Amino acid sequence: MTIETAHQSITVLFEQNQTFEVPKYQREYAWDADAIEDFVEDLGKCLEARLQNGKRNHFFGGIVSARLNVPGSSRPSYEVIDGQQRISSLVMLAAAVVFAMKAISANIEVEEEPSEEDGKALDYLKQTIAKIESLFLTHRYAVGLEYKVVPKLTLSKADNVFFQAILAGNNPPTERPSHDRIKYAWQRLNSFLASALGAEETASSKATKLQHLIDHVLAEDCTVIFMWSDNRSEAYRIFQVLNDRGVSLTNGDLLRARTLELLDHKAVETTQNELAERWDSTLAYPPSSIDDYLLWYFGSYQGVRPRQSDVTDSFMEVRFAEASLDKPITQSQATKILAEVKRLDDDFALLNQLNSGEWPYADQTGVKQWDVERLNLLVSHLKHTNAMPLLMALRLLEPKRFAEAVASLERFVFRYKTIGSAHISPATKLYHEQALLVRNDPSTYKVGVLRTALGELIEKYASGNRFSAAISELTYSPRGGNGHIRYLLTALEDYAKWYESGANGVPKCKDKTRVFDFSNTTLEHVYPRSAKGAEKIEDLEKVKHALGNLTIFGPNDNDAAANKSFADKRTILQASNLKLNRDIGAHADWTAERIKQRTQSLVDMALKVFVP
To answer: In this protein, which residues make up the domain named GmrSD restriction endonucleases C-terminal (predicted)?
Structure first.
């Protein structure tokens, strides 16, 4: 397997006579807000060190590629197999620098009598803009007697048009989640530069800071390992080897190696052997689960997430801070390290339960099966794992208080994230903060404190107007993906008696003896989805997929109702054990106006139910 490698600076990576392209059908841009924040923080630390006449090196990881020849050109093009997130983020940084330089130049040019320093800055900026554009953004090459200009980096088919428009300074509409992520990264990189340059600084001072960023941070301090092969198949095999469990170490593997190395002394040999056995138990889960569990564990105990690029170092600095390799470890220190890994092992078992939606207590003292099912719905149906650090801590409470907190989280998540699509970072930060509050004193922790904090996030990011508008616009999709509507109607049925009695205080299910089998609960159209002949009504056809025309049936009800008319379904609805269905069956007819009214009724109810 032939592979070339080079450890080089960011600038050297780009200054070769080459272009980069992400394969047309490779995955989309995937870095989320946390990853971009880490990226910006690393750049900021390197820049700050230079501004203080120092130096800070940072390794940005590897880039695996296949080198391809370009017909009619002497330049090679590298197909990016792994590393598209960092290379595309670096290109966006370069474009943001160009725009910052152009803005500073424009401000100097409108000055009536620019200072000598500003004049020098203007000359530097104009020359550097061209340098950066040719280095990071575009490649100019001759074909015959004609010059052509192509992007230095081309992304996948799903992202490239949007990406190039962003680099050009346009504001294209987002059409997919990856576009939202690109746009967020672009905005964050621009805000980073604005903050680093300072609003009150002189033009020459800003130019000097940018010079440090370009000539030192990117050219010397920030590096990658660039790996390539002339054979695409070999390059893909390299990628697979690097990401194989047997070769590429997980953060758990690295922690195991580093802690066992700390205990590599005759005096603590017995503890080292015990530590090795405990690590074997701790790392028995799939690699992807281990990575998640480490992040959740750290966040639950520290109140902040570890940096994803430095998980191992974060654990060594904070959770294993008792010792270093500089001097032999003491038995007391070795015992503390073993105790931490034992805690990891126990909590990984807890996280494995929670992540599967399993009730984490040996019994159900003080709770009903309905309460138990809330956890499964939160994790398995709403697919919300960001709250794991908090759920870990809440397990320190007695079952009843744990159940109360989970029910509040379930209602919050549906409103805030499932329907509101609010950014998850504020909620994740809140989960970490609340986890620390629980751990500080579980005996005095009040679930009401959590409800209040969740309520403040709802007011800020998922207010009544936003939520009611989103609920009223919910419609059935014949192509599937209607689980959120089924969940909504199931939840409203659970809280229907509480709502009917005045909807006072914290939402409560007044009949916990009935637990929906969510997997066997189906959506049913009141006016049929596929009406035929004389039963087809034009006004109702227009609104048949609206929320107000949808209800939930059990499997037997659904078989009996099938695609019947409202008149034929009415008897089934009237005899239903669900209040929502009996309310529909109370009507003598079913019209477009009834559907509109029921939609509003469900919206009004949802506003009361979906609060923490």
So the answer is: 464-604
> How far is it, in rounded angstroms, from Cα 195 to Cα 40?
11
Distance set, CA 111 to CA 116, 464, 513 (Å) = 12, 49, 77
Per-residue burial over 314-337, b = 16 or more CB atoms within 10 Å of its CB, e = otherwise: bbbeebbeebeeeeebeeebbeeb
Residues 200 and 267 in one domain: no
Question: What is the residue range of 262's domain?
Answer: 258-355
Domain boundary among 431, 462, 493: 462
- Give the pLDDT confidence of 126-154 residue by residue, as tens digits: 999 999 999 999 888 776 777 888 899 99
CA dihedral over 51, 52, 53, 59, signed as positive or negative: negative
State the pLDDT at residue 140: 82
Tell me, yes or no, whether 289 and 187 share the same domain.
no
What total of structural domains would you count in the chain?
Answer: 4
The whole model's pTM is what?
A: 0.66
Tokens 């207010």 identify what position?
A: 463
- pLDDT tens by residue, 259-292: 887 887 889 899 988 998 899 899 889 888 998 9
Torsional class of 589: left (φ above 0), alpha (ψ -120 to 50), beta (otherwise) = beta
What pLDDT does 247 receive?
39
pLDDT at 256: 83
Residue 590 lies in a domain: yes
CB proximity list for 471: less than 8 A, separation 6 or greater: 419, 488, 547, 602, 603, 606
Contact between 369 and 515 under an 8 Å Cβ cutoff? The reply is: yes
Q: Is residue 364 part of a domain?
A: no
